[in-house]
Amino acid sequence: MGSKAVKSYDIAVIGGDGTGPEVIAEGLKALAAASSRYNFKLNISDYDFGGNRYLKTGEILPDSAVEEFKNFEAIFLGAIGHPDVKPGILEKGILLKIRFALDQYINLRPVKLYPGVWTPIKDKGPEDIDFVVVRENTEGLYCGAGGFHKKGTPDEVAVQESVNTRKGVERCLRFAFEYAKKRNKNNQVTLCGKTNVLTYAFDLWQRAFNEIAKDYSGIKTDYAHVDAICMWMVKNPEWFDVIVTDNMFGDIITDLGAMIQGGMGIAAGGNINPQGTSMFEPIGGSAPKYSGKNMINPLAAISAGAMMLDWLGEKEAALKIEQAVINITSNKLKSLAAGKMGYTTTEVGDMVAEYVLKH
Ligand code: IPM
Ligand code: MN
User: I want to staple 308 with a disulfide (CB 3.0 to 4.6 A). Which of 36, 280, 323, 358 is the partner?
Assistant: First the structure.
């Protein structure tokens, strides 16, 4: 029969602020190598949203752009956050706006220590540190519910409320159980909460968790308070397979997770809407002090690109990029830290691309 049509994917790229555009350029290099080797096409559309555009034009992220994003198969994002812009404006106006408007209700963050990568945890290696955090990504404290009363006076009151809907909690938990099943490692899901103090929010989480667990007889369940899990992630990371938690706790424990897997130079994540447009990003931020210096580690962005390909269904290509990253962490880089890799940002990207093409 006729030859198979070449698959093609429409990807929106937002380099963003600081080192974002530099690491995304290396991510795109790896993606281009993968697409040529595995015979699919990526149609890239570039967007310049971020601090510089905001400072120049006053525009943050118009609703029309958000509508446009819905037509893409995925978004590849560098970093959002600019030293000359008040904290919150770009984060809420770009990153959180996209997460919410595109209903990317899962933030998927693998915590995986690659061979050759230094971890601050003594006596733990790649066989011990390999789990995934499923963070709820559209609710909780991030909704912006609350407000001020008598702002700026001695009687000022500030209230910030955590919003937890049955639907939001349930779809997040289901995703975690499905993910544990598909991952098929320890077949275990740990709920991370604070049922001893947040007795409304996490009562809902715990009840929904127990009910959904009944549909997954092959999956073991476990529970840990968020403070305790910070202890266990450091002392016994090998206990974890899939951890599911709310937005705020997920934000906090995934920075801890990033550190035990070697730092922000390597940690990647996906903002997932299983029915819509998902967005993939290195989780490290814009690192303005390194911007323009060709010093930052692009492996987190490259890994985010691999996650994107995996999500799009290009499993072999994603795996090959991961192998390239592992090859480089085990055989090449002296450190994952910016400026200490023994290579420049672009050299690391070149090595990944070359490996993807030739191995
Ligand atoms: C993250 C970041 C964001 C968050 C900030 C930049 C709003 O820390 O992706 O983890 O809190 O979610
Ligand atoms: Mn964070």
Answer: 280
